[in-house]
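name: query_chain
kind: protein
chains: 1
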Amino acid sequence: MKKRTTAPPVVETGRVRGLEGNLAAVAPDRSAACFGCMNHECKSGGGFISAENPLGLPLQTGQLVEVQAPPGMSIFGQALAALLPPFLGFATGYVLARLLLPGAGEGAAAGIGVLVLFAAAFIIYRVKKKHPSGKMYTVTKIIS
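structure:
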């Protein structure tokens, strides 16, 4: 039997920019390279992470801290949650178009598949926006 391994937690560093009760607003560490957006999000003042402080660390504004992403926030998990429903929507729309409209050509079936793809993506977007996952980043240690 193959041993099942779990992915290591995603750990990021950032500076505490604000405190409110047990929550800290953490801005990503600007010295770390972020190739995804070329630091555009950080430079424009966005990109804050809301992190809990369950360990009761003595946080202060300006401190460099390490935050850990909640379980299931791996790149694979996020990609699967973002890409699988639209893909299934396209496949469902294409197959249903071929079954319900046998006289329609490949282009029409693909067009209906694309419409269902966008509908599935929009539905997932609205559901995630209205009911975000309860998972939250946590502050694990103070670096400086």
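note: Residues 75-100 form the longest helix (26 residues).
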